[in-house]
Amino acid sequence: MKHVYIADAGSHEGQTVTVKGWLHNKRSSGRLWFLLVRDGTGMIQSVVSQKDVQEATFEAARTVNQESSVIMRGTVIADERAPGGYELQVEEMSVYQQAEEYPITPKEHGTAFLMDHRHLWLRSSRQRAILKIRHEIIKACRDFFDSRGFTLVDTPIFTPAACEGTTTLFETEYFGQKAFLSQSGQLYSEAAIAALGKVYCFGPTFRAEKSKTRRHLTEFWMVEPEVAWADLDDNMDLAEAFVSYIVEKVLENRGEELKQLERDTRPLERVQPPFLRISYDEAADILKQEGVSFELGNDFGGGDETVISGRFDRPVMVHRYPAAIKAFYMKRDPHDESRALGVDVLAPEGYGEIIGGGQREDDYETLRKRIDEHGLPQDAFQWYLDLRRYGSVPHSGFGLGIERTVAWICKLPHVRETIPFPRMMHRLNP
Ligand code: NSS
Known about the structure:
CATH 2.40.50.140, 13 helices, binds 5'-O-[N-(L-asparaginyl)sulfamoyl]adenosine
């Protein structure tokens, strides 16, 4: 008998098919069992009627447990009242594996319990919806760059030096040598632009974040475009077009999932270019107006970003941060050497930074000096300095954190639900 996925059941109306999946839940009314079966593509209500089936099938329906794996043969019937619009009138069913008593029940569970059972928690409708949206966001990232002439360049995970400061480096032993897990593929993408012009890398990145916040993971995914001959303004144009495209695709293709998460889509519909561009000093002024105590020169904390982004109905771009708090590779503003040509994109609704990037220092001597000033080893950066010795060009890029973007678009309270198996300071299992 033909195995059909539940999502395709509608095109088999009136036919006998086989559905394979997991028992989501069940209820009975005497001689009938209603089994809600899930297969990853959808849910279908399967009706087992005592008068229509063999004793073994009725007994299987009576005894089958939540999350058991099941195989059902039956006829697809259109039924407006059924979830998904179709029902399976079961002729025969078998239980492939009878599940033990399932630990996750409809009652409320604490976060720690759910995180310990993340491998099972993923099966819930809510987690499924989040993973579907995550997938859509990642696909949109790729499609955006692929359709604009960018080439994907895979950058290494084992690296000899820091990109984003030495305090969050994960160190590992590498055949008698020290290696660090990549914090960003940026430096390697900068090398690749001289070969390919416009590139992006997309992969897992690692930071030993000792902060326990709703925005920090120790392993997160980042997509990073890098463009030759692009300045800070070009970079901001690219970032706003990119973020708008991602939101547009999620609205277009994941309406069901957003509904399931009870996400109000109106704020997302407003995410269209142009985004407001304000300087760090203007952002600091907002904090002052709102009565937030903030020392000029410091970086914005999560709470500060919430206040700043709360002023706007769409993402806001904050540029020209104090150079002293930014990475060694950032180009200084020629009009004010104390400011770096960097930009952060802050998401609205209190989410804060989802993108960090900017224009890179392209002068050999200046960059060499910065490497020293930041206490970084010249040796490990010789290859990077070479890029300023052999055909240096103005260039810019940025990194978008996937998990923070998923958290914002799904409106989740914490990044831990945005990735299948989150890694945080106190979470390495499962
Ligand atoms: O440190 S960033 O601001 N910038 C870079 O890594 C640049 N090297 C990117 C580039 O220009 N190619 O990080 C970029 C984004 C940031 O805006 C967040 O969205 C995300 O990466 N990010 C994180 N997400 C989750 N957890 C943690 N710990 C985290 N750190 C950064």
